[in-house]
C-alpha cells in the first residue's frame, strides 16, 4: 500500500499503533518515521516520563528521601504538560517552559528510573496516554505511541502492536550517538550504565522484553531505519486490509 492509499484508509478507519521496546532499540526514530509516512500523530511516552522527571528535579525533589515517591505522584497531577504530536518536529512544554532539549540531558537519563518505576505515576501516565491515542483515532486520524508497556497496559486493544528489539551493543551505540553525538569508549560506558540500569528498573514493573499474545516482534539489530519502518508499515497495511480498507 502506498502512502496516499494508506492515509486515505486511515482517514476512514482511524488507527492506533503501539510500540514497545528497551532503551536504544530505535523505537522513537521508527515511530516518528511511521507517523510521518502514515500521516498520524506521534506520542513520545518517554518524553512524558522525562518531563515529569525534569519537573520533579526543578521542584527540588530528593529521590532518595522518604516520601519522595508520593511527592512525585502528586506532581504528575499538577504538571501542565503540552505535547506537539508532529513527528517532524515534536516539542514538549511544562507550563510555559519549553523543555524539549532539557529532558534529553544526561541528568534526566540518570534520574528517570525513580519516576518510571513509580506505580502511581505509571497509572497516571497510562490513563493520559490512552486518552490521547483514542481521541486521535476518534477524530478520523490516529496516533502511534512508543514506550515500555503500551502494548500491554496503555493500549492492549491497539490496532497494531509491536515489540521492537535489538541486541544490547546495537542499543548502546544508538543511545550513545543520541546523547553525545559519538561512540567514544568513555561515552559508551557511561551510557551502558544508564541503559542497563533503566532496563533493570523497568523490568521490575513491566515485562517489555517478551511479546504479549498478539504482539508482533520486529528485530532491528541488522536493519536500518528505513528497513524497520517498512516492517512496521507492513503491519499497519495488514491491519487496514483486515478492517476493510
From TrEMBL:
Query: Recorded E.C. number(s)?
Result: 2.7.4.25
The UniProt entry, under InterPro entries, shows: Cytidylate_kin, Cytidylate_kinase_dom, P-loop_NTPase
Quickly give the catalysed reaction. dCMP + ATP = dCDP + ADP; CMP + ATP = CDP + ADP
Mention any one GO cellular component term assigned to this protein in its UniProt record. Answer: cytoplasm
What is the annotated localization of this protein? Cytoplasm
Q: Which UniProt keywords apply?
A: ATP-binding, Cytoplasm, Kinase, Nucleotide-binding, Transferase
Give the lineage: Bacteria, Bacillati, Actinomycetota, Actinomycetes, Actinomycetales
Q: What is this protein called?
A: Cytidylate kinase
